[in-house]
Each structure stands twice: as C-alpha cells, then as structure tokens.
Write a structure and sequence with these properties.
The complex is a heterodimer.
Chain A lengths: L14 H4 L13 H5 L4 H17 L8 E8 L11 H7 L3 E7 L4 E7 L15 H18 L3 E7 L3 E8 L4 H10 L9 H11 L5 E6 L5 H13 L3 E8 L1 H4 L7 E4 L6 E4 L1 H24 L4 E6 L4 H15 L1
Parallel strand pairs in A: 3-4, 3-6, 6-7, 7-10
Antiparallel strand pairs in A: 1-2, 4-5, 8-9
Helix pairs in contact in A: 3-5, 3-11, 5-6, 5-11, 7-8
Chain B lengths: L2 E2 L8 H13 L6 E3 L3 H37 L2 E4 L10 E6 L8 E2 L2 E2 H15 L5 E5 L6 E2 L2 H10 L9 H12 L6 E6 L16 E5 L8 E7 L8 E11 L5 E7 L5 E5 L5 E7 L3 E9 L9 E8 L3 E4 L5 H13 L2 E3 L3 E4 L5 E4 L8 H10 L4 E11 L10 E10 L6 E6 L2 E7 L2 E4 L16 H12 L5 E5 L5 E2 L6 E4 L2 E4 L5 E2 L5 E7 L2 E8 L13 H7 L4 E4 L13 E3 L1 H25 L1
Parallel strand pairs in B: 4-7, 4-9, 9-10, 10-34, 18-19, 18-20, 20-21, 21-26, 27-33
Antiparallel strand pairs in B: 1-3, 3-35, 5-6, 7-8, 11-12, 12-15, 13-14, 13-16, 16-17, 22-23, 24-25, 25-26, 28-31, 29-30, 29-32, 32-33
Helix pairs in contact in B: 1-2, 2-10, 3-4, 6-8
The chains are: A alpha/beta, B alpha/beta.
Chain lengths: 321, 593
C-alpha cells in the first residue's frame, strides 16, 4: 500500500484559488458571506479546504486516519522515502513501510434543514442553513480526501434526503448536488434522522450533526446517546446566528418563531442580560448533557470564518475519536 | 390649606399624565420579526416577567412623581403658618388690654409699656395689604393702616375700665368674619384670670402676655355709704378691699372738705367707719388706700346726699303710726311740720292710707283726683303676704283695698301683694292699700315698722334719690324722669328710661329739668384689682387652639393666619431624591442587560 494520496482533486480553479496561500490570503479565514459570493458551492468549498489544509501543513500533528500497517520486501520502483532504514540496519534487508488507509471510518453528516435554519439576523450574514451547507461540504471534502466514507442526511421534522457513505472522491459532487437542492423545511425533529443514521452506519463511524438545536433536548440527547451506545463517535455542531447570541435594539418588538408561530413581545434592551443568561444556561445544558455521554459539542456562530469553524469541528472530532 | 403663588403652572400636571396615558392607551403594535430562538425568549420571560413588570411600574411611578413634584415646585406651593416674613394679606384685630390693671408698675416697668412694645412689634410686621383693627380696653375697634394704628397705640394710656377678654375676642371674631382675608386675633393682655371668659366665633387666637412679675395688690372694692339721704350727725360707711396682699393697709376716708378719717382695712374684711355729718346737700365721700404698685384702684369716690329730717304731720289718733312717728321724732329722724302728712292727702308730700270707714272711700278718691294722683282706691280684697322687697320684708296683710291706676301715667308700684299693687307712688304722694293698723296688717307689730315709716317719710314721700354704682363702660338704666346726665365734662342729654354708659370715673348727676334725681357713682371695677394671671392651660380650656406666648416671643407669632411656608425646598429635595431613584433604577436595568 502506498501512503494516501494527498493531491487535491483536479479541478479547474480560478486564479484567486491558485495563488500561493499566505495566512492573510487564506479563503477559509475570509468572512463567510464575502467568501460565499466568490463562486458556487463547489469552488468555494475547495477554496476553504485548500486554505484549511495549508494551515494544517504547518501543524502536521493534526493529521489523522493515516497509520502504519506492515513492512514488505522492497521492489524495484518503490520510492526510496518509504524504505525503513532502521530495519535495514538491523536486518541488512530492504523493507518498505506500508500505510494502511483507515477504511473503517464511515462518517455521516447530518444537516438540520428546518425553517429556523433558513434565518439570518443580518442581511450581511449567511443564513444558518447556507453556512451549514458550506461547512458540511468542506467537512465532507476533508473526509473524502482522507478516503473516509462520507454520507449526508438532511432532515427537518422528517428525513428529507439521504446519501449513504462512500469513500470515492467523486461522491463529493453528489453530496454537493444534494446540498444545493436542499431547501428549508418545516419544524425540527432530530430523532427520526438519528434513527435513520443507525441504519446507514452498520459499522462504527463518525456522526456529525449540524443544527441550531431548536428542538427537544431530552429526546435528542437520548437519540444521540443511543448512537454512542452503538459505538459511533458523535459530534454536535450547534449553529447560532450572532443575533441569536445577543439581543439588541431599543424598541419593542414582537418576535415570532418561524417554525411554530409562537410570539413574544419585549424590548430587547430590557431583556438582553436575562436572555444571555438563558442562552448560556441552555448551551451549558446541551454541553453537559452531551459530554456526559461522550458526545462532542461545539458552538459555531455564522460569522465565524470557515477555517476556524472547521478547525473547531475537527478538533472535537479528533477528541471524540 | 396648601396654596400656590403661580397656580396656573399647575396646568403642567397634565404632563405627568402623559407617561401613564402612553402606558395605558398609546401602546402601538410592535413590529414583528422572525426569530428562531423564541423559545429562549419565552423561557427568559417566564423567569423575569414579574420582576421586569415591577421595575417598569416602579420606574413609571418614579418618573410620574418626578414630573408632578417639579410641576408642584414650579407652582410655588405654600402652606399656612411658619415664618411671618412675606405673609399673605391678613385681617387682624389687635386687642390691646389697656384696662386698669395695665397701670401696674412692677419691677420699674409699667405693664402697659411691655404690652405696647409687643403690640408695636406686631404692627411693624404688618403690610399695607393687611386689614388691621386696634381694639383698646374700651372695646371700640379702630381700623387703620399700620402707621396710624402705631400712632394710636402710642397715645393709649391705662383706662380705668375692665376689659372682658371673652367679649373682646367674640367681637374681634365677628369683625374678622366680614373680611375675606384670613383672619386672626392677637390679644396683648396681662391675662387677668378675672378677665377671662368664654368667647363665641372661631378663628386663630394668639395671646401675648407680659413677663411674669408677681405683685401683691390691694384695691378698694366697695365704698358703701348706706341708705340716703344722710342726716346731720354721724353716718356709717362700709369699706371693702380686694386683692392678694394679706396685710392690713391704712385707708383715709374724706367727706367733702373735712379732714380725712384714717382707718385700717384688710382683704375680704368689710370695715365700718363712722364719719361726722353736717350741712346739707350733695357732698363727696372719698376713700383712699395707701399707695401700692397699682394706683388706679386705690381710690374710690361716691356722692352722698345730706338732708335735714322730714317735717311730718300725723294724726295722734292713729295709734300705731303715731307711736312710730314719736320714735322717729325722738331719734331726730323727723321733726314736726307740714312737709309730709301721714294718713291723708295734703298739698305737700303725703302718705295716704284707705279710710277705716268705707263710706269715706269716694271722698278720698275725689281728693286724690283733685291733687292729680293717678291711683284710686277700689273695692276691698282678701289679704295675703306682700312681696319681699328691699324696702320691706314679706308682711302679712289682713285687709286691703285694691289700688287701681287712673290714667296712662300711673306712677310706680313699690310693693305688690298677690300681683296687685300694695304700695304705690304718684309724684310726692305714696298710697298704701292697707291701713297701718293691726286689724289690717301685722306690720305694726314687726321690728321693720319704724324703719318702714322712716323710709316712707324721709325717702319715698320726700322724693327718693336714685343712687347708682357703676364701673366705666357699664350700662346704667336711667330713671324715667331723667333728661340729662351731668358729667365732669358737661351735660349730656338723655332720654328717660334709657341706658347710659359712663366713660370716666367720678360722679355723674342725673337731672330732670332743674331737679337732681340722683347720682351715678362711677368707680373702677373691683375685679381689675385681682392681678393673678390665668395659666395657659386655663386659656386653652376656654379658647381651644389658642397660642399663649410672652411679649419677648411675639416676633413670629403674628400674621400666622396669612403667613405661608414655602414648600418648594422640600419638594425640590424630593425631586432630587426621585431623580436619583430614577437614575438608580435605570442604571440597574442597564447593568442587568
């Protein structure tokens, strides 16, 4: 076996994507909305991943899924860099190291497409759903490049689309197509989607749930705990719009839940502090409830550059792995 | 009651209603925005709604109160009382007690000077917008501006009169009731307990009293010369003194131009002094105490009438009457003569009795008519008991004839029996309804018989004198025949039966044409000699709500009815506190956000 191919998929890239990546030019660190305007989902995602991976090169220890498998006798044509020189010194025979692709990692990316996800608190920001699409596309590309079988499941109160995990890089385009055709749905219920995942992931794998978590916490945690019992690694990315993180405004407003139609009338500046405390309490509840069952939890706001978001997501993924 | 210097500013209170009205009625429908995390807001609201509502309510209340307080302060609120500086127009009656007792000189300072000083302070505080009356002890209120009343005040001296404080206060209140301005009465007085009485009406009263200086005073309360007229010889005069000094004090009694007769008198112990009497006519009798701190009550004067004994003619056959006349003759009370006839009508003065023989009754009535007497004898009537009068005690009457008036001017009834006239007088003729005989009445058997006959001949038939005692200012009823009163200053024409009010000390002769009917002896009211002051509690019991202050505390107590306390400072302090409270509440809200 040869070491995994780290070459990117051969795609005709615009000039700005082919420029040398310096820290300040990395696309993954651009403002998400600005970045999304640079091109389609595919190009933008590649740009994000390129930038992200170039950042990883400076931190090689962050790599994963490539492991030493066995030695075999050297054959003509083998690259010398894979010769195990220490073994040659001990045995006086030429052996090359063989690396084993971690083919047992099957990742399933779950995207919440409920109506609440199609919301942005500011026109100058991506909606949570648009942000989630780019994030999932980037994550999928990273995983597929590592030959990890990656699938996609979109859901609102029911499962909307399912793309079984595949390790082929071409599978990414199917995944992109699915994402592009994903429209905001109705209300949210994660339990059916999570049960469906169990059916999709026969072996142990990685489950990444991207959602604004405006759903029943008890039921969702219970379903995620079930996944953990099945041996899956689970990562929950709690997506929040900055406007949901902090209330602002001086005039009284009637707030309406786009999913349930529930309304609350209040003056934001009067309630900002109390709301912040409630939100922190909610996030703490999610974090505590999930981590107590070995589920990773990370909060990502939609103004966060994708590179940062990806790094946070992958760090959590490594942590749960 | 709260008042405002610029009440139109109170219209600004409507502004205070704006926050409330906005809160209640102007709540517009807020704009609706989509917000996925409404469930977090709902959770937050569930936990904090009550506290936030309370905060909102408190803030609304504080802000409304702040506006109200500022508007009220801008309107210049004032309340009654407090400092007299810049008092509102006030109606005030200043009762200045320059009665006799104010002539007291204690500690070298006359009481009236202390009172005058206090009154002057009050007048100095008056403004041209005030309505002012000055009421001295004569009880006549004088209205004037502060300057004029100050001038009047300076001219006032102690009057030999008594001022009844309750009457003065009632008068003052009645006066103030006619003025629209807030009224008050300020009484500057030595506050004699004897001058205190209940008052009518309502209104604030302040009593200003002199600094206490206990003085043991004695004053002549009475000088009683006994029955008049006196006859040459000796007469007994009774003297009574009043006051607080327990020590006996020398007194001098002077009749006319004769040498004073000394004596000693003590409080509440009437003393009889005998004085030699000679000559005839009106003469003065003066009693004078040794001087003390209050001089005006140390002298008392009355006029006495000295007359010769009546010249009387009587019928020796009328044994009871003749016996009495003999006794009087022996005592020098009468002499034989024709001036007064006892028994039958005569050209001079006469005491007429019904005849023993009823057949002569007609002739007697005709004789009476011929002499112009306005009474006639009628039929016989049952007897009874006479009314007890000063002239005579109650006597049993066995027989009598009715006395009937014969004309509009019937003269006067002196004694009645069962409501009917028993002893009457018409001019110089006195008529008895019964004969002075034991078959007609038991009077001849009583000890009062001889004095009664003495009175008949010396007083009633000879023309009784009118002797009246009064104090300055006291109303006196004049006899029906009076047409003038001779005072020290001249002759005052009066109507018979009218009321006369003497204004000065001394003797005032009552005259009818050229005849002197009697005299009004005007002397100080003995109650003015009682200098003991009433306590503040006693005053308050009589006049609820009264303030009693000393003369050195008078500044600041006058014009309190119109004086207003500026309420702006406390309101502004309250506004400041409310503003701080509002800032604190608002800051607390900001911090909690």
């Amino acid at each position: 076996m040869v070491p995994p191919n780290r070459e990117p998929v051969k795609i005709c890239r615009p000039r700005y994507l082919t420029r040398p990546m310096h820290g300040r030019d990395r696309l993954d660190l651009l403002d998400p909305l600005e970045l999304s305007r640079l091109g389609g989902l595919e190009l933008v995602t590649q740009g994000i991943v390129e930038g992200f991976l170039s950042g990883l090169h400076r931190s090689p220890r962050r790599g994963f899924s490539v492991e030493f498998a066995e030695h075999r006798a050297y054959q003509m044509g083998d690259e010398l860099r894979y010769v195990d020189w220490k073994l040659l010194a001990r045995t006086d025979r030429l052996y090359v190291k063989q690396y084993e692709e971690e083919t047992n990692l099957r990742a399933m990316l779950l995207l919440d497409t409920s109506r609440s996800m199609a919301w942005s608190g500011d026109e100058a920001r991506l909606t949570k759903l648009a942000y989630a699409k780019l994030l999932i596309a980037s994550l999928a590309l990273v995983l597929l490049r590592q030959r990890d079988a990656t699938g996609l499941l979109t859901f609102d109160d029911t499962v909307r689309a399912v793309l079984p995990p595949r390790a082929r890089l071409s599978h990414w385009r199917q995944l992109l197509a699915t994402l592009q055709h994903t429209e905001p749905g109705a209300r949210t219920a994660a339990e059916p989607a999570l049960r469906r995942v169990v059916a999709q992931l026969r072996r142990r794998g990685l489950v990444v749930l991207v959602s604004d978590l405006l759903l029943e916490r008890e039921i969702t945690v219970k379903a995620l705990r079930f996944l953990r019992h099945r041996g899956h690694q689970v990562l929950v990315l709690h997506l929040l719009d900055p406007a949901e993180r902090a209330l602002a405004g001086a005039v009284e407003v009637r707030y309406r839940d786009p999913e349930t139609g529930q309304t609350v009338v209040l003056r934001p500046q009067d309630w900002a502090g109390a709301y912040d405390r409630t939100l922190r309490r909610t996030m703490d509840a999610w974090r505590t409830g999930l981590r107590s069952h070995g589920v990773a939890y990370e909060v990502i706001t939609t103004d966060l550059p994708f590179g940062t978001a990806l790094r946070q997501a992958l760090v959590q993924a490594v942590a749960v792995a | 009651m709260i008042g405002f210097t610029t009440p139109w500013v109170l219209a600004g209170l409507l502004v205070a209603a704006v926050p409330i009205l906005l809160h209640l009625f102007a709540r517009r429908e807020p704009p609706t925005v989509d917000f996925p995390a409404v469930q977090y807001l709902a959770d937050t609201a569930r936990h904090h709604q009550r506290r936030l509502n309370l905060q909102h309510l408190l803030l609304l209340l504080v802000r409304t109160l702040l506006i109200v307080t500022l508007v009220l302060a801008a309107a210049g609120p004032t309340r009654p009382g407090g400092s007299t500086a810049g008092h509102a127009p006030t109606a005030m009656v200043l009762v200045f007690d320059n009665s006799l007792s104010s002539a007291l000189t204690a500690g070298g300072t006359p009481t009236i000077d202390q009172l005058r000083g206090a009154a002057r302070v009050v007048l100095d505080q008056a403004s041209p917008d005030d309505a002012l009356w000055l009421m001295p002890a004569d009880g006549l209120p004088r209205r004037g501006d502060p300057a004029a009343l100050r001038q009047l005040l300076d001219s006032l001296a102690p009057l030999p009169v008594r001022l009844d404080l309750g009457t003065a206060l009632s008068q003052a209140r009645a006066l103030l009731a006619g003025d629209e301005r807030p009224g008050e009465t300020l009484i500057v007085t030595d506050l004699q307990r004897s001058a205190l009485s209940a008052a009518t009406g309502a209104g604030p009263v302040t009593v200003v009293t002199p600094l206490p200086a206990p003085v043991a005073n004695l004053g002549l309360a009475d000088l009683a010369p006994g029955s008049q007229p006196w006859m040459p010889g000796r007469a007994l005069v009774t003297l009574t003194v009043t006051g607080q000094d327990p020590e006996p004090r020398p007194v001098a009694l002077t009749l006319g131009q004769r040498a004073p007769r000394p004596g000693l008198v003590a409080v509440e112990q009437p003393v009889g002094l005998s004085v030699p009497v000679s000559g005839v006519g009106w003469t003065s009798l003066v009693a004078e105490l040794a001087p003390d701190e209050l001089r005006l009550d140390d002298r008392r004067e009355v006029m006495v009438r000295i007359a010769p004994p009546a010249r009387v003619r009587w019928d020796a056959d009328d044994r009871f009457l003749a016996a009495a006349a003999e006794v009087l003759l022996d005592g020098g009370r009468i002499v034989r003569g024709d001036a007064v006839t006892l028994g039958d009508p005569s050209p001079g003065a006469s005491v007429v009795m019904p005849p023993a023989d009823p057949a002569r009754l007609g002739a007697l009535n005709r004789a009476l008519a011929a002499r112009g007497v306005s009474w006639r004898y009628g039929t016989s009537a049952p007897g009874g008991m006479t009314d007890s009068v000063a002239l005579l005690g109650s006597q049993r009457v066995l027989r009598r004839h009715l006395l009937a008036p014969a004309g509009a001017d019937s003269g006067e009834v002196l004694i009645r029996l069962a409501g009917a006239p028993w002893l009457v007088r018409s001019g110089s003729t006195v008529l008895l309804a019964s004969r002075l005989d034991t078959t007609w009445t038991t009077l001849p058997l009583s000890a009062e018989f001889v004095p009664f006959v003495d009175a008949l001949v010396n007083r009633l038939a000879a023309g009784e004198l009118v002797l009246l005692d009064a104090a300055p200012g006291d109303p006196v009823s004049l006899p029906a025949l009076a047409d003038a009163v001779l005072t020290g200053g001249g002759r005052a024409a009066v109507e018979g039966g009218a009321v006369f009010v003497p204004g000065s000390l001394g003797s005032h002769f009552i005259v009818a044409g050229g005849d002197t009917l009697g005299v009004i002896n005007v002397n100080p009211d003995p109650r003015e000699s009682l200098l003991e002051a009433a306590t503040a509690g006693e005053v308050r019991d009589l006049w609820p709500g009264v303030r009693v202050v000393a003369v050195d505390e008078v500044r600041g107590v006058a014009f309190t009815a119109g004086a207003r306390t500026d309420l702006r400072p406390p309101l502004l302090w309250l506004a400041l506190l409310l503003a701080l409270g509002e800032a604190g509440l608002a800051a607390g809200r900001r911090l909690r956000r």
